[in-house]
């Protein structure tokens, strides 16, 4: 048996998340179907994380065990020929049988993208949240720093989060600001990207952090309130859950 590790990207707009769900399309189901077409096997495909409905991935990592003798460097071409065009396998390699995409991961980075211009960018409308109103980017930069470190993130996760412990470590949180390509003269703050790198994330945690930072940018919350919101462990004090389509799983890191 061989363990195949792959890095994939996808536009999650038309899927009900990564995980298989009865009667609706999912990324995992599409991969299982494509692998079966090549090998005749119903593979157990493991992902590094379960992205929600409408959420995207730039570099999701998956693995599956197979008896197929197809060389590792042929898997990308073989699968891409059978997958929908909004799912792309762009790296494949053989891994030790002990490797597991989720259990072996050490750090994950998510990115939430906001188009802060008055008018939307039609070429990226499926992968970024359009916010036409004014945003105080300096206040958002100040606020995001408070989310770094080890904290109990109860205030920043859905009440449906199943994890018993809500303590997580955010190694790095940063905001980048660039012009929207081709719309450099448009009114607004351009494209904002919120990057969060951590050892794990709770259900809706990144989207709630993004929604809270947007509330700071709108003046509805103050940056200095973030530590108090963390300490309170009260979901009602944080900002709204940001829309799913602005979120992408950006990268997953493993020990060498």
From TrEMBL:
<comment type="subunit">
    <text>Homodimer.</text>
</comment>
<feature type="binding site">
    <location>
        <position position="110"/>
    </location>
    <ligand>
        <name>substrate</name>
    </ligand>
</feature>
<comment type="function">
    <text>Formation of pseudouridine at positions 38, 39 and 40 in the anticodon stem and loop of transfer RNAs.</text>
</comment>
<dbReference type="InterPro" id="IPR020095">
    <property type="entry name" value="PsdUridine_synth_TruA_C"/>
</dbReference>
<dbReference type="InterPro" id="IPR020103">
    <property type="entry name" value="PsdUridine_synth_cat_dom_sf"/>
</dbReference>
<keyword id="KW-0413">Isomerase</keyword>
<dbReference type="GO" id="GO:0003723">
    <property type="term" value="F:RNA binding"/>
</dbReference>
<dbReference type="InterPro" id="IPR001406">
    <property type="entry name" value="PsdUridine_synth_TruA"/>
</dbReference>
<keyword id="KW-0819">tRNA processing</keyword>
<dbReference type="InterPro" id="IPR020094">
    <property type="entry name" value="TruA/RsuA/RluB/E/F_N"/>
</dbReference>
<dbReference type="Pfam" id="PF01416">
    <property type="entry name" value="PseudoU_synth_1"/>
</dbReference>
<dbReference type="InterPro" id="IPR020097">
    <property type="entry name" value="PsdUridine_synth_TruA_a/b_dom"/>
</dbReference>
<protein>
    <recommendedName>
        <fullName>tRNA pseudouridine synthase A</fullName>
        <ecNumber>5.4.99.12</ecNumber>
    </recommendedName>
</protein>
<dbReference type="GO" id="GO:0031119">
    <property type="term" value="P:tRNA pseudouridine synthesis"/>
</dbReference>
<feature type="active site" description="Nucleophile">
    <location>
        <position position="52"/>
    </location>
</feature>
<feature type="domain" description="Pseudouridine synthase I TruA alpha/beta">
    <location>
        <begin position="143"/>
        <end position="255"/>
    </location>
</feature>
<feature type="domain" description="Pseudouridine synthase I TruA alpha/beta">
    <location>
        <begin position="9"/>
        <end position="102"/>
    </location>
</feature>
<comment type="similarity">
    <text>Belongs to the tRNA pseudouridine synthase TruA family.</text>
</comment>
<dbReference type="GO" id="GO:0160147">
    <property type="term" value="F:tRNA pseudouridine(38-40) synthase activity"/>
</dbReference>
């Amino acid at each position: 048996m061989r363990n195949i590790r792959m890095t994939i990207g996808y536009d999650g707009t038309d899927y009900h998340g990564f995980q298989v769900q009865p009667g609706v399309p999912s990324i995992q189901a599409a991969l299982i179907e494509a692998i079966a077409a090549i090998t005749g096997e119903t593979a157990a495909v493991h992902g590094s994380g379960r992205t929600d409905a409408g959420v995207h991935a730039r570099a999701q990592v998956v693995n599956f065990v197979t008896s197929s003798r197809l060389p590792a460097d042929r898997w990308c071409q073989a699968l891409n020929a059978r997958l929908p065009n909004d799912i792309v396998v762009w790296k494949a390699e053989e891994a030790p049988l002990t490797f597991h995409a989720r259990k072996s991961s050490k750090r994950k980075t998510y990115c939430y993208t906001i188009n802060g211009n008055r008018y939307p960018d039609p070429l990226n409308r499926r992968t970024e949240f359009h916010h036409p109103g004014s945003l105080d980017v300096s206040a958002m930069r100040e606020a995001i720093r408070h989310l770094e470190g080890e904290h109990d993130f109860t205030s920043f996760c859905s009440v449906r989060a199943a994890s018993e412990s809500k303590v997580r470590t955010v190694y790095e949180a940063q905001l980048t600001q660039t012009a929207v390509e081709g719309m450099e003269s448009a009114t607004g703050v351009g494209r904002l990207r919120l990057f969060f790198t951590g050892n794990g994330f709770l259900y809706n945690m990144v989207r709630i952090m993004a929604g809270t930072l947007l509330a700071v940018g709108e003046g509805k919350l103050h940056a200095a309130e973030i530590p108090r919101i963390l300490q309170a462990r009260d979901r009602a004090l944080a900002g709204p859950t940001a829309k799913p389509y602005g979120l992408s799983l950006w990268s997953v890191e493993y020990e060498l």
